[in-house]
Every structure is written in C-alpha cells, then in structure tokens.
Amino acid sequence: MSMWGWVQIFRSCCNFRCCNDVNNEDNHDENNADDKNHHIELATGRVQLINTIQNWDAKLLETKKPGKIVILNFSSSWSSPCRRIAQPYCKLADKYPSITFLTVDVDALAEMSSTWEVKATPTFFFLKEGKQVDKLVGADKQELKMKIANIDSLPS
C-alpha cells in the first residue's frame, strides 16, 4: 500500500488530520513524492522548535511583551503539508526579523495541541502581545505571507 493510502487510513481512524493547501489538495502524486523527503526540517534558521513544556514556558513569557509579535506553527514531521510549508515558513522568518517564529512539535506536545484546539496540521496562530489576532489552518503559502504582512503592519 502506498504512503498516501496509509495516511488516508490514519485520517479515518482519528480526529487529528493534516491539511493540504488549496492548490495541492487532490494531487496525490506530489504528496507521495513529498513523503519520501522526511529529512526536511520543520524549524531551521530563525524558526525555533518547541518540543518541551519548558521551551514553551520560556517563550510564553516573551510573547506577552509590549509590541511583541509571535507566529506559532503547530506542525508534525510526518505531515506532507507541514514539510511542504516548512521552507517557506523559514524564509518568512528571515524576511521578518522583528517577529518571533515558533514551531510546536504536535507529537512531542500533544497536550499543548489540545489546549490550543489544534485539529489539523499545520495550524498557525498569529499572536500580538500574547493575544491571538489571527489563525490559519493549512499549508497555503500565499495566505501565510498575507497574514504575516498584515500582523506586521498592525500598530503597536
């Protein structure tokens, strides 16, 4: 059975699912090719990986500072859409150095995913001064760019 078949079985057995971006939702060939690229890192460069409660607790204090903008990406290494959006997300982190970019490993921090009511990966939360101002579910690169530009332009 192909990897795509196992993903479909997994999705049907549990509530947690991966989200495909609009342009690739039905493109199983691309998803199969992407499944072979497990080496893609979800957090590199300026993107910080959150995989322990201690990491999160330290960052949580930082998110509440005046004027502070944080992008919180709930992601998993097994999700094709997460791997597909990882590199563009890291490039956006380089483009917006005043914004903190975090990636939460949903497998390592399942309880945090539940607290934030994450139902699919990737899910992005846009925080300003510790408060959620926007949310994006799925790997839509254009929508992610637009939402980051919007939050960056909000008055302090």
Automatic annotation (TrEMBL):
Name of protein: Thioredoxin domain-containing protein
One Pfam family in the UniProt entry: Thioredoxin
Domain Thioredoxin: 42-156
InterPro entries per record: Thioredoxin-like_sf (IPR036249), Thioredoxin_domain (IPR013766), Thioredoxin_H-type-like (IPR050620)
Highest rank taxon of the organism: Eukaryota
